[in-house]
Amino acid sequence: MSAAPGDVHPPSRPESLAEWAKNLRRLDFEVATRAALATAVPLIVLVALGRIDWAACASFGAMTALYGRAEPYRTRVRTVGVAACGLLVSIALGVSMAAAGASLPVLAVGLLVVITAGMLLSAVFGLFPATAIFFVFAYTVCSQAPTPSSEVLPRMIVAVIATAFAFALTMSGWFIRKAAADAPAGLFKPLPRHPRVRVAAVRDGRVWLAIVQNLVGVLIAGGLAILVGIGHPYWAVVSVVAVMPPPGATHSTARAIHRIIGTALGVVVTGLLLLPGPSVAVLITIIAVGQFGAEILVSRHYGAALLFITPLALAVAHLASPVPVQTLLVDRVVETALGGGVAILIVLLTRWTMPLVAAGRRA
């Protein structure tokens, strides 16, 4: 039976390919590639030097390349520079705590300082992500890695070099775009993000509400993890900061649920990769691929991105402070569920109380 003139036909193959190509261009391969290179190259150098125990400092310095996404280069140089300074201070504080053998209360105070300063820094300079997640991750892991006092300076030198390399990679697109000034339109992705410096953010009630939520959440989650006797309580802390919405964002529980489910599936992937006992070279490959995949997916679906983020995070932690893989995997699932659960409760409590507070003010 022939189709009537007004019938709708399925899209032809050329149209499907065009749509597929359009969707492919939406993926941020530029950001993902520089993030993977920024992480992999310093780690390869450390392997060649026989100092893979300094991997954490290099990896967190390399996270500088995660900032400046979709920003013009005049703005990006400021954004990435601020993020680099924040990461280096977080690493330095963590390394110093580890070398000094700081007590739990001192570590907790340092964590609260990092969260507060990191969120204010993000709010004032318009960093993306607009949370302290990478600063907290750097501080918590570095503060737990065994560090002789004689190695504080060399570890910080490694962190500075890795940060400088990541900064150079992040800005390298300026030279490429300048050299290809006559390239066809559409070759490069647009750079629509224009963050402004907003000093007034330090007086913004929404920013301080988010800070208080994070501080309360990490204290509760970290305390519970320690009471339960979990071996890596900082995962619960990092989970709280990762789940909490940034200042002014909608208080949704979807992100927490995505994180818990995505992490559980990511742990399965990590187990398949780490349980066979891979070499250091394979671990570095896992970290680089994880960084690439995470940057491709994180802005599209957070839960799917965790299939890459979890192997990346656990491989970095395993390089920094090797422990039995089974223990690492179990701790990751339990503490992510714990941190995510605490974050959900705080999000719901905020959602319930804020209308009451607003009504009280109007009254």
TrEMBL record:
Its main location: membrane. Keywords: Membrane, Transmembrane, Transmembrane helix. The keyword Transmembrane applies. One of its GO terms (cellular component) is membrane. The keyword Transmembrane applies. It is found in: Membrane. This is Integral membrane bound transporter domain-containing protein.
